[in-house]
């Protein structure tokens, strides 16, 4: 063996170790990305804070963003064992395309798309820092940000108008069956000497979006990953629970107007029933989960008993 071969083997081994060693994350690089992101989207957040975030419809969006940040923070333990392999080509293409789209939609005041672009921008940052492995790790927090998007007006109108008419019809028929002097014309409910209009806030759409976000957050974070049946039942129950809670809200408002007068129902009482609706829906959701847990334990015990009976003595 020659002297040259003896020298080249350690060098080759050292070179292999250097190439196979996982790359770390530069805090300065991450800090620069975070500052750049905040600078780019600060005008968007100011616009949201002065507009949609002050409404009942979109007031939950900041909480959704904080929840997504908390979900991302929960993944920090897995960073140490995740090999970082940046994907610069895909990252830069996604980043440049998303920022261009953000600039165009901001200039045209298309707020929903402007807010949406923060998701692919964050995706691009993950690709530049750690590649697709990092994207898979933070996939759910990124997807969860969809619930913070302000829906376009035409979508809300398409869903809200028929839902208001339906809830008005159901409440009117229920009260009529109980003997109340009630009639209905579209979203107008006439009871006694009073005439009430079911407003957009009473359609249940706001509660549906908020409860969907909370329900999916709860299922992802607190329900056992193996309990697929429990997860499906909980997610499928969100809309029926919201509709049921909204029925009781409209029913309460109509009966309160009949017995107390319309003047006492407007304002604070109306807002309190909105909060009560949401709390009631959450209680129903968690009660359903408690029932599912109890049924699951009962079925497990039943199968365990049957298996012991079936074994030979």
Describe the structure.
It is a single chain. This protein has 313 residues and is mainly alpha-helical. It folds into two domains: 23-144, no CATH class; 154-310, no CATH class. Helices cover 73% and strands 4% of the residues. The chain has helices at residues 3-20, 27-49, 61-73, 88-107, 111-116, 118-130, 132-137, 139-144, 153-177, 205-222, 228-260, 262-265, 268-310, and strands at 182-185, 188-191, 194-197. A hairpin with a 2-residue loop joins strand 2 and strand 3. The model is unreliable at 1-23 (pLDDT under 50).
Characterize the main sheet: 3 strands, antiparallel
Compute the separation of the termini in Å.
Answer: 72 Å
Protein structure class = mainly alpha
Overall residue-averaged pLDDT value = 83
The number of helical runs is: 13
Q: Supply Rg.
A: 27 Å
Envelope shape:
flat
Number of domains: 2
In percent terms, what proportion of residues is strand?
Answer: under 5%
- Low-pLDDT stretches are 1-23
* Strands, total number: 3
Helical fraction: over 70%
Order of strands across the main sheet: 1-2-3
The sequence of SSEs as H and E is HHHHHHHHHEEEHHHH
